[in-house]
Amino acid sequence: MTSPQRTQTAQKTQPDWWRQAVVYQIYPRSFADANGDGVGDLPGIISRVPYLVALGIDAVWLSPFYPSALADGGYDVDDYRNVDPRLGTLDDFDELIEALHAEGIKLIVDIVPNHTSDRHEWFVEALEAAKGEPARERYIFRDSPDGAPDEPPSDWDSVFGGSAWAKTDDGQWYLHMFAAEQPDLNWQHPEVRADFLETLKFWSDRGVDGFRVDVAHALVKDLSEPFPSKATLPRQSESNGKHPLWDQDGVHEIYRDWRNLLNTYDPPKSAVAEAFVPAARRARYASADGLGQAFNFDLLQADFEYEKFRKVIEANLALAEENGSSSTWVFSNHDVVRHATRYGLPKNPKGGWQDGKDWLLSNGTEPTVDVALGLRRARAATLLMLALPGSAYLYQGEELGLQEVGELPAANLQDPAYFRSKGAEKGRDGCRVPIPWTVDGLSFGFGPGGSHLLQPKWFGAYSVQAQEGDHESTLSMYRKALAVRRGLRTGNSLTWVDATDWVLHFTRDGGWQCITNFGAAPVELPDAAVVLSSGPLEGDKLPSATTAWLI
User: Fold this and answer.
1) Contact between 23 and 391 (Cβ < 8 Å)
2) How far apart are CA 330 and CA 8, in angstroms?
3) In contact, 36 and 448? CB cutoff 8 Å
4) 49 secondary structure, DSSP code
5) CA 6 to centroid of chain Cα atoms
6) 395 pairs with which residues across the strands?
């Protein structure tokens, strides 16, 4: 049933709704399966709209749902203006957006502009064309070096491992910074630029509220020859736009054109960049004449420690104020080990943040995950994040406290990172396993059949059904937090309350306080009403790895 509050919100959409929105990422092939083929689909998502309403989110970010061979989980796109038949139809898409909008929930869709799939009509045409013909100019084709006909144009590696060049039957090579099935587009070509504007318009006209831009920093490349070697690439500056492959200044001309188009709608369409660039460079992607917002992965890449969290929060709020945008906060997504698992692992002995990749390589056996500690920290971190100014991005299943599936057998793996690295990386499949809805059943309620990635036996205990009636469950905490946040969120700033080096305490306008205890011992709470906590309190004390909201 449509809530009056949400209907009213839908009728009075504000142009800056995205600034403090809670956005829920759906990886469509692993959310809900309506037809029982083991792959999630759009009708499945439609059937779960009441769940999204009860959760209390402001928007859905829908990962790629386009026709695809799934060489990279849907990020190899065959056709940017259609729906994969395995996931549904354009009519289903229209029904989904209508169902979400009826509840005041916005829809953000993934756009993948750096590369197409190798089945895209442009690339098929390019391979059928002879060397030097115009059809190849939409991509990046090059010849072997003089005197070395079997060598690629450079020794660059792709992000997924192996050479960044693939050879065609006529001896030319094409660039693919990711999988070989994902040829990079030539964004100097006017037809490429014009076609993506048409794609943005196609989905905007259907009612999409915004776009998440995949690998936003990679579109423009300096391919002047001779190419630098991969040994010198790390020494190319990534802080001034001079790296030949990443974060070229010319990319912002593209996004100015995008913003001009998106601003023709009322309200303007939102956009958020996935740009792995230094913080100082990230601001340009989030500028008012650019995409408007950019992902901040700094909290995601920080261990659960006071100093790291405070430093990240201070730096990113300052950047947001400087460029007039709002920050984004995220702990989990479709590319990383779930944070409930990461926080249960010991510190990374190699240094850097605990990304869980070594644990994945052991098939989830070494080191042992402290599941209870990881969940307690994850709940505390999430409650802290939801109190911060800016928008919060949640990943499907984190509201269940879902752990990463580390025990997937090699025969079931799908991620190209596993195959191209020859097993040196396990890949990202463990966070993409279909989520559990019921305590039992062939696929724990995911659908009437099985699931395309194997669900472990322990999934049932994390299911929606198992948590629905438990007022202390992680699902209940998320629902309460989002409901309370909706009434409390205000302004774009916070005020720090300095206490100790292990208690993170700040206030927001209206008397809202957030306190997180990163220390080992319980700490005294101030004299204020506790409206929500991430775990049980010890009288008037806040236990370790716990966050409380007070008024």
Assistant:
1) yes
2) 28
3) yes
4) H
5) 25
6) 25
Q: Which residues contact 270 (CB under 8 A, 6 or more apart)?
A: 17, 18, 108, 209, 210, 211, 262, 292, 293
DSSP summary character for residue 139? B
Task: Locate 163 and state its tokens.
Answer: 């050479």
Tokens representing 112?
């993948």
Q: Which residues of the chain have pLDDT under 70?
A: 1-12, 238
Residue of 82, 57, 43, 46 whose CA lies nearest to 203: 82
Helix (H/G/I), strand (E/B), else coil: 340: helix
Q: What pLDDT, on a 0 to 100 scale, did the predictor assign at position 185?
A: 98
Q: How many CA atoms lie within 13 A of 245 on its CB side?
A: 23
Check residue 415 and give its pLDDT: 95
- Give the Cβ contact number of residue 248 at 10 Å: 18
For residue 323, the model assigns a pLDDT of 86
Structure tokens at 417: 């990172």
Element (H, E) at 167: strand 165-167
Cβ proximity of 454 and 433 under 8 Å: yes
Q: Which residue has the tokens 């829920």?
A: 24
Using a 10 angstrom Cβ sphere, with 0-12 exposed, 13-18 middle and 19 or more buried, the burial of residue 372 is exposed
Say how far apart CA 7 and CA 104 lie, in whole Å.
6
* CA–CA dist 32, 34 (Å, integer): 6
Distance CA 470, CA 112 (A): 40
pTM of the model: 0.96
Q: How far is CA 255 from CA 62, 114, 288, 289, 377, in A?
A: 21, 13, 10, 8, 38
Give me 274's structure tokens: 């996935």
Provide the β-strand partners of residue 538: 541
Sign for the pseudo-dihedral over CA of 318, 319, 321, 327: negative
Whether residue 402 contacts residue 462, with contact meaning beta carbons closer than 8 Å, is answered with: yes
Sequence letter at residue 349: P
The pLDDT assigned to 279 comes to: 86
Residue type, 431: C
Q: What is the pLDDT of residue 11?
A: 39
Distance from C-alpha of 376 to C-alpha of 379, rounded to nearest angstrom: 5
Tell me how many helices (H) and strands (E) the chain has: 15, 18
Residue count of the chain:
551
* CA dist., res. 204 & res. 199, Å (int): 8
3-state secondary structure of 42: helix
The C-alpha atoms of residue 331 and residue 296 are separated, in whole angstroms, by 10
How far is residue 513 CA from its own chain's centroid?
Answer: 28
Alpha carbons 327 and 308: distance in angstroms, whole number: 17
Query: Are the beta carbons of 482 and 56 closer than 8 angstroms?
Result: yes
Burial of 123 (0-12, 13-18, 19+ CB in 10 A): buried
For residues 521 and 543, give the distance between their C-alpha atoms in angstroms, rounded to a whole number.
7
CB 217 within 8 A of CB 251: yes
Backbone φ, ψ for residue 270 (5° rounding): -85, 165
Q: Are 154 and 227 in contact (CB under 8 A)?
A: yes
Instruction: State the virtual CA torsion across 477, 478, 479, 481 in degrees, nearest 10.
Output: 80
Nearest Cα to 547, choosing from 527, 533, 526? 533
